């Protein structure tokens, strides 16, 4: 029963001042065990804020991040799942599933989390899951201005992961849930 | 209470379940009923558990999408199942903190993971079911012994099972149907006769064993019947079942915490709210004060000691009550104690409109708990009394010794239990205020039912009234004696103080009637004189022992009765004393008293008057009254004079110089009379004086016949009063005596007068003492609150003066 928060692309302070208030009210410390962040927080304040939510924080480097020490990609194991993290601007074409699948195979992970497109996506692909949590602040992207703030909460429980997607649509938080089950015998 | 053999004597878990109301309590309840009750309680638990312990992961078949906004893990919505999950998780964390410290010694049953898990679940469930209470530290300690006894009984069951395996087998109807083919289908049994061979006697194989239930002893039979898998309610009804241990433990815990519609609800002890108590205090504070109240009745010295050290009962009683003494005794002793506690019923004893002081004492069980606490305090009594500061006292209390004889404590508690129950109803509104403590002491010791007064003028009013009331309870009965004793004790104390003092100290008689109707004076007088002499005698034996006493007020009054105070006051006192008609008697009485006293004591106790009189006597002059009076007052005023007076007194005391004394007294009387607003007839007093003196010398009781008569007679004109004075006094009387004819019957009159006089005397002494206080003379008594008297000295003095005035008025009217 591990709760993992996945978010990214906040672009604070350049493109967005802060997380939406409704998101902030939901994110209280103590409930979440891990945070994985795709990148482009941009400044240190966001980093500290996320650290206050949960001490176990994993970040990969986005192209606008001010802290240059973040790695390009990261892998970690939570429960029975292997998670991979990357910002996604390195994978061209941006947001292309096949290319991301290549990265997933390369990292050898069950769940790949990338960002950069500022669009929420979740694919089941070849025995694994590719998740894009979108932009937590709703910052505009290179591709589009019309961005809804969104982030993802994963509930990893044994061989099953439940993905809750939180989107702020028209000022209201909408929640969706996706179930993934890992097959006991893993991938190719 | 458990004289008759209680059912399931050896099966604690069953017995406790009966006591806590889970299983039917009537002695005729059949095994079937027991089983059904057990099954019901278990079902309740299971339904509760299903409801409360919700796993948010369980896929709900319906409404996959509907309430995701509510039911997501981050939802702040209190209804969300995730919210409940998180709350439960927090509760669990708190519970775990306590459980990890439960009986942590090695090999402890409670530290095994299975037991810990069970305890955790039970506590969680109960707290979720009672969100208003939440989880408080200590609940786990209440639960642990309950689980323990269940486990013990299950172990017992398995032993019985081993011993009497046959009774537990699954054969239908208990009749073995022999298998057709011995070779292939014999059931290997330990007890089967292997060597039985080709006998077709299968039927007899088991017949020879002890396997009819009736042959077993009652306990084992009980165990077996209760555990029959095919009895009522099947497996769910097996009363001693390992499988349902958690269910049973939960029911017992719930029964204990909720009190089963009774009075004592342990859950209340954990709450800080004021619900459920008769006063405005949290229940546990009220219960703590109840046991202090009981202690004050039973052992006032210890109670006073606590109050002095500022030890409030809840400092230690909180732990005792919340865990029902779980921390004070080792587990086995605790089980014995809890046997007793649960054996008493928890039903409310009082009807709805009856007043009570403490809620906990309204049931036998609660009263026993309080009594147990008090008996534990009494066990530690000597060491507690030896402690000087409150921290050491508390240390002693919080580290209850391990090697106690629990049975003795329990027996003592049983004896105190009835006192507790009575105390609850006899004196309502005894609660709370610290001021009331003194009242509690005084009043409860007097066993009167007077309600405590507001401490506005506590001493002035209650002291005197109390004295008066005490006096009027005289006659038969231990009360009088007891009061006399207590008075004597207090006097003893005061006297012992004065032993070291060179001054003559006035020693008031122990009891004083305040609102005097003269007709009440004689018994007063008798009592006074009795006690006075008693205590005087006893004072010799006192070695300065100070007692925390029943009558602190009394003693405080007494102690500072050192001599010499404001002369003006004294004069006033004299004035009051020398009220017309009777004053002579009064002084006579006093003289007589003085004589008596002197005769008894070594002259250390002498009321002011005696001193004064002695001074007068010393003067021995019949000259101007005023002159004498001035001398008198001077002597009174001066300590030095005082000192020499006592020596003089003995010489005078024998009333040899009756003339002198009487003249002296008369002089004395006259002196204050002059300035006094009341006119006094000095000549009339003389005969009285002498007469009274003589009478007193002869022995008190004579004069103390019926007050009424005496009063009536005295109520007549002074002359009349003078006239009927008994003749015996003529013996010693002189000149003045001639004018008086005391009739024998008037001894009563004299007695009355004596009483009056004595009262006046005492009042004066009080005034003196008040002034003594005013002067700030160090009082030898340290125990009692000198502060009591300090501020109230004036009050007392004024009261005493008013009394004197009243007395004199009364006498005047006569």
TrEMBL record, chain A:
It comes from the Eukaryota. CDD domains: MPP_Vps29. Keywords: Protein transport, Transport. The keyword Translocase does not apply. GO terms for biological process: protein transport; retrograde transport, endosome to Golgi. Pfam families: Metallophos_2. Residues 4-157 form the Calcineurin-like phosphoesterase domain. InterPro entries: Calcineurin-like_PHP_lpxH, Metallo-depent_PP-like, Phosphodiesterase_MJ0936/Vps29, Vps29. GO terms for cellular component: cytoplasmic vesicle; cytosol; retromer complex. Belongs to the VPS29 family. This is Vacuolar protein sorting-associated protein 29. It comes from Eragrostis curvula.
UniProtKB/TrEMBL annotation, chain B:
Residues 6-345 form the Rab-GAP TBC domain. It holds the Pfam family RabGAP-TBC. Residues 722-739 have a biased composition (Low complexity). Residues 616-628, 706-721 have a biased composition (Basic and acidic residues). Keywords: GTPase activation. InterPro entries: Rab-GAP-TBC_dom (IPR000195), Rab-GAP_TBC_sf (IPR035969). Gene3D superfamilies: putative rabgap domain of human tbc1 domain family member 14 like domains, Ypt/Rab-GAP domain of gyp1p, domain 3. The keyword Secreted does not apply. Residues 616-685, 699-743 are annotated as: Disordered. GO terms for molecular function: GTPase activator activity. This is Rab-GAP TBC domain-containing protein. It comes from Eragrostis curvula.
């Amino acid at each position: 029963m591990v709760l993992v928060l996945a978010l990214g692309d906040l672009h604070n302070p350049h493109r967005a001042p802060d997380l939406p208030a409704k998101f902030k009210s939901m994110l209280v410390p103590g409930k979440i065990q891990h945070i994985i962040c795709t990148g482009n927080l941009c400044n240190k304040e966001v980093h500290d804020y996320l650290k206050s939510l949960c001490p176990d924080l994993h970040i990969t480097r986005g192209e606008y991040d001010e802290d240059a020490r973040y790695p390009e990609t990261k892998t970690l194991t939570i429960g029975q799942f292997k998670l991979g993290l990357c910002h996604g601007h390195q994978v061209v074409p941006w947001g292309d599933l096949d290319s991301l699948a290549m990265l997933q195979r390369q990292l050898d992970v069950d769940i790949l989390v990338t960002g950069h497109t500022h669009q929420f996506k979740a694919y089941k692909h070849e025995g694994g899951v590719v998740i894009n949590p979108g932009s937590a602040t709703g910052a505009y992207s290179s591709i589009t201005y019309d961005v809804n703030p969104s982030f993802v909460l994963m509930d990893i429980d044994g061989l099953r992961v439940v993905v809750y997607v939180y989107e702020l649509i028209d000022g209201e938080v909408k929640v969706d849930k996706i179930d993934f089950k890992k097959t006991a015998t893993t991938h190719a | 209470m458990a004289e008759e053999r209680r059912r399931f004597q050896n099966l604690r878990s069953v017995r406790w379940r009966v006591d806590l109301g889970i299983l039917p309590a009537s002695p005729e309840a059949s095994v079937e009923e027991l089983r059904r009750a057990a099954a019901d309680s278990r079902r309740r638990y299971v339904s509760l558990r299903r409801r409360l312990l919700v796993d948010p992961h369980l896929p709900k078949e319906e409404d996959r999408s509907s309430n995701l906004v509510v039911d997501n893990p981050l939802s702040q919505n209190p209804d969300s199942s995730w919210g409940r999950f998180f709350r439960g998780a927090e509760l669990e964390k708190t519970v775990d903190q306590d459980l990890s410290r439960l009986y942590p010694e090695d090999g402890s049953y409670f530290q095994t993971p299975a037991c810990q898990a069970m305890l955790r679940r039970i506590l969680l469930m109960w707290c979720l079911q009672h969100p208003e209470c939440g989880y408080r530290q200590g609940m786990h300690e209440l639960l642990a012994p309950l689980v323990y006894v269940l486990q013990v009984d299950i172990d017992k069951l398995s032993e019985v099972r081993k011993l009497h395996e046959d009774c537990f087998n699954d054969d239908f109807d208990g009749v073995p149907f022999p298998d057709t083919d011995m070779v292939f289908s014999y059931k290997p049994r330990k007890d089967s006769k292997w060597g039985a061979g080709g006998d077709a006697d299968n039927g007899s194989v088991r017949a020879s064993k002890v396997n009819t239930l009736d042959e077993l002893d009652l306990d084992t039979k009980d165990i077996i019947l209760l555990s029959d898998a095919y009895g009522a309610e099947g497996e769910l009804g097996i009363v001693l079942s390992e499988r349902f241990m958690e269910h049973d433990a939960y029911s017992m815990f719930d029964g204990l915490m909720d009190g089963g519609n009774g009075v004592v609800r342990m859950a209340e002890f954990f709450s800080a709210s004021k619900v459920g108590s008769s006063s405005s205090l949290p229940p546990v504070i009220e219960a703590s004060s109840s046991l202090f109240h009981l202690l004050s009745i039973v052992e006032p010295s210890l109670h006073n000691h606590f109050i002095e050290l500022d030890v409030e009962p809840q400092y230690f009683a909180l732990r005792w009550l919340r865990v029902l003494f779980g921390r004070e005794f080792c587990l086995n002793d605790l089980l014995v104690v809890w046997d007793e506690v649960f054996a008493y019923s928890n039903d409310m004893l009082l009807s709805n409109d009856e007043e009570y002081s403490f809620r906990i004492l309204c049931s036998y069980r609660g009263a026993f708990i309080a009594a147990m606490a008090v008996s534990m305090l009494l066990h530690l009594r000597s060491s507690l009394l030896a402690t000087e500061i409150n921290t050491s006292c508390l240390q002693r209390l919080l580290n209850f010794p391990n090697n106690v004889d629990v049975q003795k404590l329990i027996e003592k508690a049983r004896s105190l239990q009835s006192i507790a129950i009575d105390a609850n109803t006899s004196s309502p509104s005894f609660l709370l205020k610290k001021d009331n403590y003194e009242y509690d002491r005084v009043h409860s010791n007097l066993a009167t039912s007077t309600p405590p007064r507001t401490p506005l003028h506590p001493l002035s009013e209650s002291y005197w009234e109390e004295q008066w009331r005490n006096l009027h309870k005289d006659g038969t009965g231990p009360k009088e004696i007891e009061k006399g004793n207590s008075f004597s004790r207090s006097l003893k104390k005061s006297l012992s103080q004065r032993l070291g003092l060179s001054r003559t100290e006035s020693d008031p008689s122990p009891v004083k009637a305040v609102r005097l109707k003269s007709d009440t004076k004689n018994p007063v007088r008798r009592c006074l004189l009795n006690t006075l002499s008693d205590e005087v005698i006893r004072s010799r034996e006192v070695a300065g022992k100070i007692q925390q006493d029943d009558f602190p007020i009394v003693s405080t009054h007494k102690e500072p009765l050192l001599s010499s105070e404001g002369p003006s006051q004294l004069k006033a006192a004299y004035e009051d004393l020398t009220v017309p008609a009777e004053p002579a008697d009064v002084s006579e009485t006093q003289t007589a008293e003085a004589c008596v006293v002197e005769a008894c004591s070594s002259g250390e106790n002498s009321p002011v008057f005696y001193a004064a009189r002695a001074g007068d006597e010393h003067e021995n002059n019949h000259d101007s009254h005023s002159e004498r009076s001035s001398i008198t007052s001077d002597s009174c005023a001066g300590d030095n004079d005082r000192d020499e007076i006592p020596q003089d007194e003995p010489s005078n005391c024998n009333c040899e110089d009756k003339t002198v004394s009487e003249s002296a007294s008369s002089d004395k009387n006259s002196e204050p009379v002059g300035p006094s607003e009341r006119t006094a007839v000095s000549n009339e007093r003389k005969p009285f004086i002498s007469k009274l003196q003589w009478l007193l010398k002869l022995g008190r009781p004579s004069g103390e016949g019926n007050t009424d008569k005496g009063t009536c007679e005295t109520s007549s004109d002074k002359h009349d009063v003078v006239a009927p004075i008994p003749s015996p006094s003529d013996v010693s009387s002189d000149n003045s005596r001639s004018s008086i004819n005391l009739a024998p019957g008037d001894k009563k009159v004299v007695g009355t007068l004596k009483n009056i006089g004595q009262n006046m005397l005492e009042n004066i002494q009080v005034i003196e003492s008040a002034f003594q206080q005013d002067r700030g003379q160090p009082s030898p008594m340290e125990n009692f609150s000198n502060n009591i008297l300090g501020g109230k000295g004036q009050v007392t003095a004024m009261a005493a003066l008013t009394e004197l005035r009243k007395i004199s008025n009364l006498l005047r009217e006569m």
